[in-house]
Specification:
single chain, about 220 residues, elongated, alpha+beta, disordered N terminus, Glutaredoxin, 8 helices, five-stranded mixed β-sheet
């Protein structure tokens, strides 16, 4: 049986022992409870697509809990939706290094293999991955090319992406992670929710709302 978005929600909630929360109808979404407007709206990076941004940090335990859920959810997004992850620092030097780690892994092609491992190391094993030296030593233990990574870690390309991510977080008025932003217009709120599956259901509803509003009347 193919994994549909509805079946994804059913499997996740069944695994977690929660009540089924299907994708919410747009009529059920309440401003101030489920979402807040982003003013002014921000254009997405992919023209013609509904962009979903996940603002996160490897140093955030809640982001670590969301990560195993949001990956399959993102993999089931329709073709008119683009998903992008945005590591943020909130001005913290330690979290800035974690953002550099994310972008460095993306450039070396190791992100898919080590993404979950970074979360586990930082939030569950309490490993210190906040300094250049500690990060490089950990990468070597994971079988990555630490020498190649070191050349990228503070490169212009990585520093530019870190600065752009923090600027995007400021412009989007992000003050906590994880936070999802849909179509540069809707910030998903976690008020009165039963957990991450319901937050993803709200995001599904906002995607549908953005799609409907984009259609010519």
């Amino acid at each position: 049986m193919p994994l549909t978005r509805r079946r994804f929600h059913r499997l996740v909630l069944g695994t977690l022992g929660l009540t089924l929360v299907p994708p919410l109808a747009t009529a059920d979404l309440l401003e101030g409870r489920d979402w807040r407007p982003l003013t002014p709206p921000r254009p997405g990076a992919v023209p013609g697509k509904i962009e979903v941004l996940e603002f996160f940090s490897y140093g955030c335990p809640h982001c670590a809990d969301l990560n195993p859920l949001i990956k399959p959810w993102a993999g089931l997004l329709p073709g008119d939706v683009a998903f992008r992850r945005i590591p943020v620092s909130f001005g913290r030097a330690a979290w800035a290094n974690l953002a550099r780690l994310y972008f460095g892994l993306e450039l070396t092609g190791d992100l898919g293999r080590l993404d979950e491992a970074v979360f586990n190391a930082v939030t569950r094993e309490r490993r210190n991955l906040y300094t250049d030296k500690a990060i490089l030593a950990w990468l070597q233990d994971q079988g990555a090319d630490a020498t190649a990574f070191e050349a990228l870690f503070r490169s212009f390309a990585v520093e530019t992406q870190v600065a752009q991510s923090d600027a995007l977080a400021r412009d989007s008025k992000i003050d906590a992670v994880p936070t999802l932003v849909v179509d540069g217009r809707y910030v998903v709120l976690a008020r009165d929710t039963k957990g991450f599956p319901e937050i993803l259901a709200i995001a599904d509803g906002l995607i549908a709302m953005a799609r409907r509003q984009a259609q010519p009347s």
